[in-house]
Amino acid sequence: xxxxxxxxxxxxxxxxxxxxxxxxxxxxxxxxxxxxxxxxxxxxxxxxxxxxxxxxxxxxxxxxxxxxxxxxxxxxxxxxxxxxxxxxxxxxxxxxxxxxxxxxxxxxxxxxxxxxxxxxxxxxxxxxxxxxxxxxxxxxxxxxxxxxxxxxxxxxxxxxxxxxxxxxxxxxxxxxxxxxxxxxxxxxxxxxxxxxxxxxxxxxxxxxxxxxxxxxxxxxxxxxxxxxxxxxxxxxxxxxxxxxxxxxxxxxxxxxxxxxxxxxxxxxxxxxxxxxxxxxxxxxxxxxxxxxxxxxxxxxxxxxxxxxxxxxxxxxxxxxxxxxxxxxxxxxxxxxxxxxxxxxxxxxxxxxxxxxxxxxxxxxxxxxxxxxxxxxxxxxxxxxxxxxxxxxxxxxxxxxxxxxxxxxxxxxxxxxxxxxxxxxxxxxxxxxxxxxxxxxxxxxxxxxxxxxxxxxxxxxxxxxxxxxxxxxxxxxxxxxxxxxxxxxxxxxxxxxxxxxxx
Length: 502
Prior knowledge:
Helices cover about 45% and strands about 15% of the residues. By secondary structure, it is of the alpha/beta class.
């Protein structure tokens, strides 16, 4: 569905988008939409989306928005899924949904979770899952699974481990470049933002936006660049794209540790916890230390869909994702208990970070690296730099030895030979539409501190706080969800500093 093509569109050249030209973002996108003379035509979806309520479409955009003729007018294809509004007479418009990542497939979110949206939302919006460039049914970032799956330490402690990390990053880039081509250097979030605007313009009306996790970075940067193009915007589980490397590690791992404490408290009070009555933190430390001494066996895995052993890094990084949803806490407790008895299978099965040779699925991994490396600082130049950051993280969260998603993001990009084209910077949104931001107090993946920081940057936004745990709030169907739906449907905002308990 997603081909990399060469378009020689005489109308574009005639319109003055000359080779090497750079234009104001809005002008460049609007010119492309007008002069490429495309329309979005909805039709059947690929077989993986088996639902009669879905239709799919594609739209071509330049590989390089800074110059429509860079790379000889090569274009990429954006793939999207639509769930059409059920009540056309009361239709409000389009609602773009992005699940985050970077690298999660919006097409999958709309196809698999679209029916979990509020009935009024489904009735009154055309719900759009537009896969970002490099992801899913859009022109994909492609790599060799065997190269991606090589084991490496993202928190190196020795010079040999540091050199192995550098070699792995270089080998992965070289392999992805060979298989993907020039797109590997044009997947930064600003390019994706322009893609969204091109599709919106092709739709011909203002749209609403619902972004989760990294989707809050994507859509907040969209708001910054195209402040007059949207009707409503919700940012759920916020990512602040302006902090330094060290600050991100401190903020991220502190939130991780605080949420872990919530898990321990839960474990002490519920029979759902397989470790109730035990010192759960002590058991976690014991399995962590065992894995540090030697990888632990995962006999339920086959090295195809999940690895047959589990390392210390697997445990201390994966636990952060277990904490993202309280419904997964019983499984986390069982994973700790089983591992203490000698079976680490659940750790390997739950957060599968190996490529499985299914390109649609694997683009989450491949594009996640390529996008992150163009968006986030990764300036460590030596083992000493890494050890110093490690020391900072372990000071604030000794239980996981400072591990967190920010660690891996920074480590996997060291030596990535693509410029940092969307470097961290404060958001300068200046539009009239008030944005609704939502964050849980105990979100161990996107810290409440990031939400507060981003809200201060945006200024024209209301921050709705959920007094609870978990990564994102919309699909919990509580009071927070009701307030989010009211905003999308009626543009009704909660009062500033509103706190909900569900």
